[in-house]
Design a protein that fits this description.
alpha+beta, Uridine Diphospho-n-acetylenolpyruvylglucosamine Reductase, domain 2, Uridine Diphospho-n-acetylenolpyruvylglucosamine Reductase, domain 3, five-stranded antiparallel sheet, 3 domains, Uridine Diphospho-n-acetylenolpyruvylglucosamine Reductase, domain 1, four-stranded mixed sheet
Length: 310
Amino acid sequence: MRQPAVVTRGLARIVVGLPVEWTEHEPLAPKTSIRAGGSAELFLRPRSPDALVALLARAQQEGVGVHVLGGGANTLVGDGGIPGLTLKLPADLFPEELERLEDGGRVTLGAGAAIVRLTNLMRASGWVGAEFLAGIPGTIGGALAMNAGTKHGECVQVLEAVELATPGGVGWIDRKELSIRYRHTELPPGSVATRVRFRLRKGDLEASRAAMETDLGYRKRTQPLSQPNCGSVFRNPPGDHAGRLIESVGLKGHVLGEARISELHANWIVNLGNATARDVAGLISLAQGRVRDATGITLVPEVVRVGVFT
């Protein structure tokens, strides 16, 4: 829903004098992997770390909400859009850093960089350790936030430290200071991850390459990567798989509006062309209800909902 002009003007004042690219009512569907949802009330791309800190400070002073949009994977934006500020950190906001060590090395990347950049640098540098991130879409910041991974590993295993921006400035914190669990990293309230440092090691490069190729091949065969999707919809419950549970209650291939529970993998929802966030959310609720009624298991969404759902 379009905000009143006076509200929009008020938000636009937040960027005055700052090196920030911004647009009002920016469509967000094209910026998410499911290609559904509404617009950002004010969409911002800060061009410097200082600009980011200033934005966070001004938003705090005005009581305006801030959402950070990464690569849009595992994100469902409500059809009513996202009120307040939506930040997109440019991939080139920070330079890449590589440090060679006796037993491996460190890679430091901006939160807006693509995940594939980490695996590419790992391979080019002759290091191993982050093979499980190969083929996962999205940004480094998103991988941190979701503690992204597969059955072969997760982000926390190679994470060393995170740089955070707050209204008061920018600083690094060690991984041990973060609360990290399955598919979630808890950042301090009001903070935005700006850079992430990974620790990689020396190892069998041929085995590393083979593992990544095998995993990529498996993904292509078993996941609907050719269709707009939001990745794995639910976390796997202990000792079971969400896809198996959803299929067991007869929902594989089920369609609601323009969204479908994938016929290839029941823990994925795909956009058939013009799906709304309501269509996708409806399938999520349907799957949760059917599985809970049949098995007593409550599926926990992995996909993150943001914005206003109507």
